[in-house]
Amino acid sequence: MKLGLRRSLVALTLCFAVPMLPSCTQAQSGEVNSNLDVAKLSIKTTQGDRNFQVEIARTFEEQQRGMMFRQSMASDRGMIFPLNPIREASFWMKNTLIPLDIIFVRKDGTIARIAPEAVPHSLEPVRSGEPVAAVLELAGGEAAKQGILEGDLVIWSDPKG
User: Fold this and answer.
1) Which CATH superfamily is domain 34-156 in?
2) Residue 36 φ/ψ region, left for φ over 0, alpha for ψ in the -120 to 50 degree band, beta for the rest
3) Global pTM?
4) Class of residue 99 by CB neighbours under 10 A (exposed 0-12, middle 13-18, buried 19+)
5) 81-105: pLDDT as tens digits
6) Would you list the domain boundaries of the chain?
7) Are 129 and 155 a contacting pair, CB within 8 Å?
8) What's the pLDDT tens digit per position in 107-132?
9) How far is Cα 79 from Cα 57, in angstroms, rounded to an integer?
10) 128 near 104, Cβ under 8 Å?
């Protein structure tokens, strides 16, 4: 067997043998997870609307994986974690390679808390401090850059209801 073909087979085997990791190309490139639905999300700030495209992590497995292994995130992208039932939320940064702003969203859509620049790989819990309906993750520092504050209104709709 030629060396190039053997390497390709080994790489392909690793992609299928490690189901807990995102797809190999995703883990290497930081690309959007094509398995997740994407929605438009807007945050109404005192300085105007801020618009994002967000992946929707609905299932336990999707929420557990979250932004793990991503090497980058564009400033207009993010991930939203709808919580049903509404509850206090706690997130960590295990296996997360980039800093994130973690934004806790109440049932009425207002921002309850912003945890800016959560530290990559940290196992320290980042807590909402009150029951929330969703958690939004943006690139680290993006909330401050875009003037997003606690109390601002997050508007989005899940295409699957």
Assistant:
1) Protein of unknown function DUF192 (2.60.120.1140)
2) beta
3) 0.79
4) middle
5) 999 999 999 999 999 999 999 999 9
6) 1-31, 34-156
7) no
8) 999 999 999 999 999 999 999 999 99
9) 7
10) yes
